[in-house]
Amino acid sequence: MRVLTSRQLTILTTDQCTAQCGHCSMNSSPQRRRRLTAEQICRYVDQAVESTEIRLVIFSGGEPLLLGDELFQSLEHVRSRGLRSRLVTNAYWAMDAKKTAATVERLFSAGLNELNISIDDFHFPYIHPQKVKAAFAEARKYPFDAVILVHCSGPDTVFNARELDELVGEKLPRMFNERGDAVPLDRSGKKPFLAVSNSTLQGIGRGTGLQLAQLPGQEDWPQKARAIGGCPWAVRSPAVAPTGHLVACCGFEVSGNPILDIGDLETHSLSDLLDRADQDLPLNMIALEGPYELMDRMKEVQPDLPFRPYYRSFCELCQDMVTNPVLRETLVQIMPLRAPAILSRREGLSKTAAHGSSRNG
Q1: How confident is the model at residue 180 (pLDDT cuts 50, 70, 90)?
Q2: Distance between CA 268 and CA 251 in Å, rounded?
């Protein structure tokens, strides 16, 4: 039994997008052309059903709707295998009332459970906000499980909470408070559940080049991060990159990274790669100890490492740790030192899981 259990799988359908946002964690753009086929996606879904505990498939990118008919075939297959689906889009397709209505109807008919629509300052050079408004208004007519506006903001953004409420004509509930903590929301009302996933800007992917100030109200984030410990997404929320590789997460573009790229799904099954990830020492270090504890341990070995003075998230720190050659070399250097602690944590989690299974049985 795997200790690092995956319950959701993100399909990064393509690295192509109609936009080239300055904060894009995946470096997507109109010029990029890699994409997965419906045949590949359906095969991954079949493997997920047959050999994993994955129950949610998330379609992201790039822009998933650029796959055209192959996206809808994939959504229908997810539904046929009894899994739930979520899709993240920028609503470029909301060109007029007829096109908007037809696209939303087709998404619902294909079995999509949750629709997420991105909107923020960085999308506006490419996607007019009225397209998002039209897509959101049309989607809320259907009994999706949820229709979520994904809104990213920071100290210098212009389109913020007030502007978003004015655009949609109401104040929608926010999924996170000003400190970045998840807010318990009542999803028991009529479908669809409507809300804003109000994330904050991060210096990851293309956003690494942004000049970002420390976010107000998050001064205690490093302390909080150390208390959380392990990364909740590493391996537990893996992704399939447009290259056909299984990667440990979808926090930023990691296909080809020696730490976070798990392997090629054309030559290995999903189950085999998840088994490999579950036994991988550096992935366990990230998942069970977390980037902040690892940074502390690395500094014990080499105090003058080129870490930034402040990180806003696990992803920012992890990106530096696995992409900066000097940091990555030190991470590899401390692996033998961390192995006993990782084995102990895994044994504890295994015993807890076994105890829970026996009680449930």
Answers
A1: confident
A2: 23
The residue count of the chain comes to 361
For residue 325, give both structure tokens.
């050659």
Q: Nearest CA to 77 among 100, 101, 119, 111?
A: 111
**Phi, psi of 237, rounded to the nearest 5 degrees:** -135, 70
- Please give the average per-residue pLDDT across 331-350, as a whole number: 96
Distance CA 171, CA 181 (A): 19
Calculate Rg over the CA atoms of the chain: 21
The answer to whether 85 touches 59, Cβ cutoff 8 Å, is yes
CA distance 207 to 274: 29
**Would you say 84 and 113 are in contact if contact means Cβ atoms under 8 Å apart?**
yes
Which CATH code fits 8-213?
3.20.20.70
Cα 65 to Cα 139: distance, rounded to the nearest angstrom: 15
Domain ranges of the chain: 8-213, 279-360
DSSP states of 148-168 = EEEEEE-TT-SS-HHHHHHHH
30-63 burial code (b ≥16 CB/10 A, e <16): eebeebbebebbbbbbebbbeebebebbbbbbbb
Q: What is the pTM of this model?
A: 0.95
Give the pLDDT confidence of 191-248 residue by residue, as tens digits: 999 999 999 899 999 999 887 765 555 778 899 999 999 999 999 999 999 999 999 9
According to the model, what pLDDT value does residue 357 have? 56
Give the torsion through C-alpha atoms of 183, 189, 190, 191, to 10 deg: 30
